[in-house]
Design goal:
By secondary structure, this protein is an alpha+beta fold. The chain is built from ten helices and 48 strands.
């Protein structure tokens, strides 16, 4: 939100008060408290009729500092608060005549006692700072004083209060994150409002807004408000990232890395690490699509077609019309098209499939569940007191479930449990962005602040049910909306993209920004959701989709089965599904790492190579874990331009070795794309290619790519439950390669070890132990 007209003038609508002096600094438990008047105090009288901004700095965790600034301390907003888990950290405080310094691990904040400002430092380097007119209180559209006859006495009508802060940028500093955003990957020059909307992938709005960003200067910032946090990323003032929130208080955390992995480790330690999705969820998902005509016969024909063409399938998804039209969401199968639901689901389970159904948090009027929910107070109420809030947008007269009501949560879970009891395995938790603000919540929460936070409550409610009924390691969602903390409830998908190369590219951009925002597992609609893709787009998207953490074929008005495009599409689908199944020992190890450390499975190049200037802006390629580089093809002629960082890279599909530190251009058929293995990578590759969940430790071989002399490579191999079954170490000494188990049981076995050097492959058989 912009409060200025150029650098010198404030907007005519803004009445700003800015912290101007560290008038008083005192020690508090774990930190410092600063009283900052909005003008310099030269004599006693200057303290009269003078607002102050109070700033609290705390050591929240090692290398993490929490900042809280406020104008009126007793202001009550009733905003929901993100669930956080702060760890203990000893605060080191030094007070001198010149400055006050608070240190938390390697990061410190220095408060200037002579002229207003504070700055964050780490290991002798300035990270960012807040100085002249950078921390303030804005009285937007201030009209009256509220103290004179004829004035409006309700203070909330006097003006709109905002707290605003700005943190400096350095030359060459790039800003990343803010959730799943489809605009340019580097966010400099953008205004970002973290207000969830149902806007597709081709606009500046987002399904998944996260008030977190990081920069290539080695730090991240989480603005701890569920409200609409408005960011000006080198836009209103090109030397700063500004952020503002409605109300009288502003809270944020600064995390020091300097590596992006370390920043996300700290951020997810605070806001929550992702649950580990079940191994079967990494296989191919196939959907009915949205508005297509389908019944059991249609679905069975899809499954038969996949089997006949030997395309491994793991999950089948029933989209909205498993229920009757005008009945969403009444949790009742449409018996006109699915007359034998339990029998159908049993027959599909016998094929080895998992089953997913679509839900949303809205209840259409005219259904028994709507009447039950309305009667028991389980729906959001109108702010004017005239009963249940309803709308005709999406479903006729629909209401919205109030997840701040514990009884409503239990009721909603009970409805879903009935579906689980029938044989459903997981849910696609769609929507959660179209949440009204002219409503009353059961717990009295501020409805504007609840707009984004609603999706956290919605997805938590469903995920906790799955954990309870299916088990901790069997719970998985396919969610569209998100906010900070929703990374705990995977998986998320990218929403409504279109069937084109440009939409495929914007989808990847959104996923990369999402990864920089603390989310580890992500998917997208292969082939695009809207319209029907030409066969070439569909086949290129298959490669991209099956080299993503999760992979789903889903569309709007047409089917996404491969033979609907051409027979070659079936061969491409089979090739890349089998490729992904073979990579599962590696991919699931990276999933376990994500669960433990908060790192994303799909990683922007700058995330894995923060010191490489060429990687700072790359948004058409990514790392899959730390060892595989993927560059999807976005061109009908099959041409791809990609960058390999320093080192030696081996083509996973063709074995060709290329030197890094430069860009390459190549042309690829539908069965190939730039897929490279990083040097000194010890990669576990499965021999099972028909399913994603199998005994990885006993069904894999090891590939050691371009071993680096004197260096060690480590490979962790999990079991399908996410426990590390084997940890293998390989090294190269005087040109000789050896491998040994350093954790797990493998004595007496032989390890097939393939060493890749200069495009040649040599097999070593070595005993475990």
């Amino acid at each position: 939100m912009k409060f200025t007209e150029g650098y010198w003038l404030q907007s005519e609508r803004a009445n700003g008060l800015f912290a101007s002096e560290a008038y008083e600094i005192e020690k508090i438990p774990g930190g410092l408290l600063v009283t900052a008047p909005t003008t310099v105090i030269n004599q006693r009288g200057d303290t009269l009729n003078r607002p102050t901004i109070t700033v609290e700095f705390r050591a929240a965790a090692p290398d993490v500092i929490a900042v809280r600034a406020w104008h009126y301390e007793a202001y009550e907003k009733r905003e929901p608060r993100f669930e956080k888990r702060e760890s203990s950290c000893e605060a080191e405080i030094v007070l001198t005549e010149e400055e006050a310094v608070l240190s938390a691990g390697r990061v410190s904040v220095r408060i200037d006692r002579k002229s207003w400002g504070y700055s964050f430092w780490a290991e002798g380097k300035l990270l960012t700072s807040c100085g002249f007119r950078n921390l303030g209180y804005m009285r937007w559209d201030k009209k009256v004083s509220g103290m004179l006859p004829g004035d409006r006495y309700l203070r909330e009508h006097e003006y709109e209060p905002y707290m605003v802060s700005e943190l400096s940028l350095s030359p060459g500093e790039n800003v990343y994150g803010f959730g799943e955003r489809f605009t340019a990957f580097v966010k400099n020059g953008q205004t970002v409002d973290t207000w969830n909307e149902d806007g597709g992938t081709a606009s500046q709005v987002a399904y998944k807004s996260v008030p977190f960003y990081m920069t290539n200067r080695g730090y991240g910032v989480f603005v701890d408000h569920a409200d609409n946090v408005s960011f000006e990323a080198a836009s209103e003032k090109v030397e700063y990232v500004g952020f503002s929130v409605p109300g009288e208080e502003l809270r944020y955390y600064l995390f020091y890395g300097p590596e992006p992995k370390k920043i996300l480790k700290e951020y997810t330690a605070l806001t929550g690490r992702p649950a580990l999705p079940p191994a079967w969820s990494f296989g191919l998902w196939l959907s009915t699509s949205f508005t297509t005509d389908y019944d059991e016969q249609t679905v069975t024909s899809f499954l038969d077609g996949m089997e006949e063409r030997k395309i491994p399938l793991s999950v089948f998804h029933f989209d909205c019309f498993w229920m009757k039209g005008f009945h969403w969401c009444d949790f009742t199968w449409d018996k006109r098209v699915f007359p034998d639901v339990e029998g159908m689901l049993r027959r599909y389970h016998e094929r080895g499939l998992k089953l997913c159904v679509w839900i949303n948090p809205y209840l259409a009027q005219g259904t028994p569940v709507f009447r039950e929910a309305a009667q028991n107070g389980y729906l959001l109420l109108r702010a004017d007191g005239h009963g249940v809030w309803q709308t005709d947008n999406w479903q006729a007269g629909m209401g919205v479930v109030d997840f701040t009501n514990p009884e409503a949560c239990r009721w909603y879970q009970q409805k879903l449990k009935g579906l689980l009891d029938m044989g459903v395995d997981c849910f696609k938790t769609d929507f959660g962005e179209r949440i009204p603000v002219d409503v009353r919540y059961f717990d009295g929460s501020d409805p504007v602040s609840m707009h984004n936070y609603y999706t956290f409550l919605y997805n938590r409610c469903v995920f906790e049910l799955l954990q309870r009924e299916k088990g901790e390691r069997e719970a998985v969602l396919f969610a569209r909306s998100a906010t900070a903390g929703c990374q705990r409830f995977p998986v998320h998908w990218g929403g409504d993209c279109s069937a084109s190369y440009i939409s495929m590219a914007e989808t990847l951009r959104g996923g990369l920004s999402f990864a920089m925002s603390g989310f580890s597992f992500w998917s997208h609609d292969i082939g695009g959701f809207e319209s029907t893709a030409p066969a070439d787009v569909y086949k290129r998207w298959l490669a991209f989709g099956l080299l993503s953490s999760h992979s789903r074929l889903h569309g709007s008005g047409s089917y996404r089965v491969p033979w609907a495009f051409d027979e070659e599409a079936c061969e491409v689908a089979r090739f890349f599904v089998r490729l992904k199944c073979g990579l599962m020992p590696y991919l699931y190890a990276k999933a376990v790492e994500a669960h433990e450390e908060g790192t994303p499975l799909m990683r922007p190049m700058v995330f894995e190579f923060p010191g490489d200037p060429a990687c700072q802006t790359l948004d058409m390629q990514y790392m899959l874990g730390e060892s595989l580089l993927v560059a999807p093809v976005f061109d009908r002629d099959g041409e791809a331009v990609y960058y390999l960082p320093e080192g030696r890279w081996t083509g996973y599909l063709d074995g060709q070795v290329r030197e890094g530190g430069r860009f390459y251009r190549g042309t690829y058929d539908y069965f190939s794309l730039p897929l490279y293995v990083r040097e000194n990578s010890l990669l576990a590759v499965g021999t099972q290619r028909e399913r994603p969940d199998y005994d990885y430790a006993s069904s894999c071989v090891l590939h050691f790519y371009e071993p680096a002399e004197g260096e060690t490579a480590v490979c962790r191999i999990p079991d399908p439950a996410g426990n590390i079954a084997l940890t293998v170490e390989a090294c190269c000494r005087d040109g000789a390669v050896s491998a040994r188990i350093i954790q797990g049981c493998g004595e007496g076995k032989e390890i097939p070890l393939f060493v890749h050097r200069n495009g040649e492959v040599i097999q070593n058989m070595q005993p475990f132990g």
